[in-house]
Amino acid sequence: MRELGFKIKYDRWELLLQRILFSFVVLTLAARQDIFSSQPQPHGLGLYINFTFLADPYISVILKVLLVISTIFYVYGKFMPISVGYMFFYLLAVGTLRLSQGTIGHGTHLVALVLLGQFCAYCYSSYLRFRKQPIKANSRLTAHDLAVYWTQQAIAAAYVLAGISKLNAGIVWKMGLPIPRWIVNLPNIAAQIITTHNQYYYNYLSIKVLEKGNLIANWIISHPNLTRLLFSGGLLVELCAFLILINRQWSFWMGMAMILFHIGIFALMQIWFNYNVYVLLIYTVNIPFLILSINKLWIKSRMRFG
Amino acid sequence: MSAKNNHLSKIFNINGLISKLFYYFEKIPYKFMFIIILLSLQLVEWYPLSIFPMFSKLNGTSEFVYITDEENRPIALPSEFGWGSVYLTKYYRAQVKKLKNNLQDKSNQNRYEKSINAKAGKQLLQFIIDKRKPQTAKPTIYKKLKIWRVKIAINNKKIIREKQLIAELKLL
To answer: Quick check: B85 and A168 CB within 8 A?
Structure first.
């Protein structure tokens, strides 16, 4: 039986490239976050901690400098529980403060979840090292390998949860078969499509986008069963996201499917989850592995053919 | 351990049970994923844990808000104010929810709906004025801002749009 679980040994250059790319994602995200000076509707940890100290100009500069320093240590792979921990808690503070304004947005959750996964992995690895136990018995697997493994689990959890949310609407019996109510209600997504296209229009005043939205919505209303067939694929991709954990091949193909899923969402809804796509490219499609593989192939071919 | 406790743990095999549970727990693959899923289902929304409920409710209705100037011309929101329509719609809904929650007589929410919507709309307009961060080098000076709400509904395969002026804010 194929072994499930923690088994992939990553090349050190692959791990380094992943950390470099991911640190860019974290820094870009942190730079673009709005810092608010009040918490009118405290969310999550904001119920217990007042994060408005982030708005103080001096504290803000110090925290950002510390973030950059942490990121440098993170890339070099040193003091990982502290560097990843700081990166996670910084994004947690900024994200909680943003959500404490009364609005809920999910554009940055995946990056913070990935940091949470890596933080937990490095802390656990440090605990095992303290106990003089290996990361995994009879293997050369390291803390960095464990961090990538837990990162992929965080990614899988996020997408599976999105799928479960859609199934929460219940089941409907059609022709003796149990069909998720979400699939039955799918043609109603036309209302959301009109809304998102209008919202895009009122951002950039592009008439073409409005016309496109109306076209898609009318097509969906006119073809309800075809809509159900096509859009169910998205639900399947979400529920099957855990397949990225099996091995590299599954991770690559499911990662590609998830990116295509996001491209589909952008084409239909004008909503682009850019940070999600970056994370998928780094940790599931694994662009660093592809770059290294192409490089190795090129070196081999040069050695063979001169 | 006392003789009595030792005797009890032997009868119920507590230590053996815990060891067995631990052994089987160790065998479960992808533990971290399951922990995140279970925690998120319990907490629902606790950054960064979430059930990610985007587009999970497809009841055939939706709404959004947009802002126009004094001549009812739509404004390119991110360029002029630094805030997009998606965020402002969520902000408006959050203000409406907060005002409804603050009502003393919650059973009569429908009676106060118009005034609640107007108040939330004015709060939103004040928000974008106070927190204005235009992306354009020469932001436009407006005399008046108006917030409109559009409700979309799918009824008998037809798209129904209902537009309503929520509030106005005079600036000059």
So the answer is: no
B126 Cβ under 8 Å from any chain A Cβ: no
Angle, to 10 degrees, between the axis of helix A248-269 and the axis of helix A224-239?
Answer: 140
Residue B17 CB neighbour total at 10 angstroms: 11
Choose among B29, B47, B154: nearest Cβ to A109: B47
Residues of B whose CB is below 8 A from A201: 74
Q: Furthest-apart CA pair in chain A: how many Å?
A: 68
Strand order in the sheet with B61-68: B61-68, B144-155, B158-170
pTM of the model: 0.88
CB atoms within 10 A of CB A36: 17
| CB contact at 8 A, A199 and A213 | no
CA of A221 vs chain B CAs: smallest distance (Å):
6
Size of interface A-B (CB pairs under 8 A): 186
pLDDT tens, per residue, chain B with 172 residues:
455 555 555 555 666 777 777 777 777 788 899 999 999 999 999 999 999 998 888 888 999 999 999 899 999 888 899 888 888 998 898 888 888 888 766 666 677 788 889 999 999 999 889 888 888 888 888 899 999 999 999 988 889 999 999 999 988 7
Angle at A62 between CA A34 and CA A75, to 5 degrees: 85
How far, CA to CA in Å, does B154 sit from each of A238, A258, B66?
26, 29, 21
Question: Of the candidates B86, B168, B164, which has an alpha carbon nearest to the alpha carbon of residue B122?
Answer: B168
Joined together, the tokens standing for residue A33 give 């976050």
Question: Considering only residues 21 to 40 of chain B, which have any Cβ-Cβ distance to chain A shorter than 8 Å?
Answer: 29-30, 32-34, 36-37, 40
Closest CA to B59 of A169, A46, A138: A169
The whole-angstrom separation of Cα A87 and Cα A64 is: 10
Q: Which residues contact A109 (CB under 8 A, 6 or more apart)?
A: A95, A158, B47, B48, B50, B52
Contacts of B165 (CB under 8 A, 6+ apart): B146, B147, B148
How far is it, in rounded angstroms, from Cα B89 to Cα B83?
10
Using the beta-carbon criterion (under 8 Å), do A204 and B61 form an inter-chain contact?
no
CA distance A162 to chain B (A): 5
Chain A nearest CA to B125, separation (Å): 15
DSSP strand E in A115-180: where?
171-174, 177-180
3-class DSSP state of A171? strand
Would you mind telling me the total number of residues written for chain A in this entry? 306
Residue type, position B135, single letter: Q
